Amino acid sequence: MYILELEQEGDITDIAAFDSIEDGREFVSKIDGYQMIEEDGFIYEYIYPERLPKYMEISFKCNIIPFTKFMFRGNDRVMIIWKEIPNLSNAEEGLVSGSTRVDAYMIDNNEVRKYIEDRELKYEEAKAYLEGKGYSGGGTVMKFVLASHNQGKLAEMQRILGQLGVEVVLQSELGLALEPEETGVLSDAELLRGGFKT
C-alpha cells in the first residue's frame, strides 16, 4: 500500500492511499501541473502550483477528489512522495515489506537490524576516538562542520555527537558553499572519513 504525500517547503500533506504505485501514478497524472522526471535511474515527481486551476475535481475509480492551487503556499514546486506502508489487515508471514526511518534515512526492513548494529558500532568507535583524544560529554569541546545541506543529517549528527559535547553546524552557518561528495552511508563513510581529523 502506498500513501501519496505532497511536500512543499517542509509541509507534508497526505492525500490518499493506493494499492499500488501504478494506481497512484495514474491518479497524479490527472493533476494539472504534474511532471515526472527520470534522472540517473531515479524518478522524481512534482506538481507546479502555478499550473493548477483555482479548483478542479479529479475523478479516479468512481471517487471524486477536489484539488486546488490554494492547497499550497505560493508557487514553489511540490514534491510527490510515495510512502510504502504495510497493510497489517492482510495476513502475511515474517517481516513486513517496506522500509523504516532511522535518523535521516529510509532503510529497507530486511536491512534495519544490521544497519542499527553497524550504526551503533560506528558510534562507539567515534566515541572511543574522541575520548582517546581527551574529549568527553558535558559542555562544548569542539565544533564539527558538516559538509552537507541535509537537515536530516544535521539532526542525526547533533543527536549523536552532542552527547560527547561536540557542536555540529552546517557549512552554510559559517558562510561556506562547498558541494560535498555524498558517496556512502553517513555512519560508515562520511563520519569517520572527514569529521575527526586532528
Structural class: alpha+beta
Overall 3D form:
flat
What is the radius of gyration computed over CA atoms, rounded to a whole number of angstroms?
A: 21 Å
Helix amount, in percent?
A: 25-40%
Order of helices and strands: EEHEEEEEEEHEHEH
Which band does the percent of strand residues land in? 25-35%
Largest sheet: 5 strands, antiparallel
Straight-line N-to-C gap: 48 Å
Give structural notes:
- The protein is α+β, with helices and mostly antiparallel strands and 198 residues long.
- It has helices at 21-28, 112-132, 151-162, 186-194, and strands at residues 2-8, 11-18, 34-39, 42-47, 56-60, 63-67, 78-84, 99-102, 105-108, 142-146, 166-170.
- The chain is built from 4 helices and 11 strands, in the order ββαβββββββαβαβα.
- The strands form 4 sheets. The chain has a 5-stranded antiparallel beta sheet.
- α3 (151-162) links the parallel β10 (142-146) and β11 (166-170).
- The protein is flat, with a radius of gyration of 21 Å.
